């Protein structure tokens, strides 16, 4: 595994994050970049206008979704793949624990968000529910809440067993990078968070750190004019 | 990172895969275990009967989904987390390339299946479409095909650039572990695979290997009495 660190290679790399202020998958990567103290530029795609589905963007990212990270022109898609790449390329301030079993627990927590909650609730799926299944706003709201509640119930149990200040122990990991944007989404959709006191406590711990605070959607350049 | 290998530790571990013959996420893990030449036992949960949602199983796997791998009693959920754990614990016959950039490409391909296709099409979501949105069989069929086609279109482009015999180069990786079960699902739902000749060619290459062949759903012990 290549372990060039930030001082030898990263210092020379230009990092450009293609995202959108409200994309929770892009939000995960912003947190990871900030935890690594990496400087990066942002390129915005207006998801509501469908910019991510343009031929130009698909040339760069065939799946037509954000985020995509360009590192000196090398393009990486999928937020979890980007976070793992960051952790291998810049091993300082690790985003995963060192021990193999512990790594699997952190990855599993991250994947509850990234596989079991978010994909079912993202913009393209909710749009399809409205257009293909003529779902009402209330039905969409229930749909979103259902998958968040199922996933958060499992996460609450897992962090009760393995977490502390953060999802896993005393240092933020990719599990926290995934959790905080999903809690943001949950609030946005009015999901009751009272059944998840440990997740809410971890959110509070995270948001006390600059890396998480500065990654918040409302603070991104493309959120101009939108109130929090 | 812990790199005990199979000969020092794995030989003593008892591996039990909790799954279901037709679960494509369990199918991914069966392939990975076979590629590593690891012996394992199977514990079946009848997903159609809701066994994965039982209190007993959730005690072991809070998310209430398969697969779950028990390794000497240590429990790992989420198929991608299990595959990464296998690769770290048993580094012989790696499931990821060595170089950091290459690893990110393989992970991104795996995640197109594991994040962008499968979660939207799995049993619990299709059941919700039928029950909560009164979707007809035809609507469910279109729904499944839509997400497979979007994801496979991106994958076809990526393997054209990075693949060869397999999704990435000349050795099977976690991308192939994810692709083959998804192609199986696509066939099951009658999705036209003609637009994806490279994916179909990779499927043929994979199925020539015992590791993939022996992982096929129809060959699992809990598929008794079901014709292929």
Protein described:
- The structure is a homodimer.
- Chain A is about 50% helix and about 5% strand.
- The first copy, chain A, is built from nine helices and four strands; from the N terminus they run βαβαββααααααα.
- The termini of chain A are far apart.
- Mean pLDDT of chain A is about 90; it is low at about 1-10.
- By secondary structure, chain A is α+β, with helices and mostly antiparallel strands.
- The longest helix of chain A has 26 residues, at about 135-160.
- In chain A, β3 (about 70) and β4 (about 75) form a beta hairpin.
- In chain A, α4 (about 100-120) packs parallel to α7.
- Chain A folds into two domains: about 10-90, 3-Layer(aba) Sandwich (Glutaredoxin), CATH 3.40.30.10; about 100-215, Glutathione S-transferase Yfyf (Class Pi), Chain A, domain 2.
- Chain A has a four-stranded mixed beta sheet with strand order 2-1-3-4, with helices on one face.
- At the A-B interface, β4, α3, α4, α5 and α6 of A face β4, α3, α4, α5 and α6 of B.
Question: What's the short story on this structure?
Answer:
Two copies of one chain form a homodimer. Chain A has 228 residues and is of the alpha+beta class. Chain A has helices at residues 24-35, 55-60, 79-89, 100-121, 123-132, 137-162, 174-188, 197-207, 210-213; strands spanning 15-19, 41-44, 68-71, 74-77.
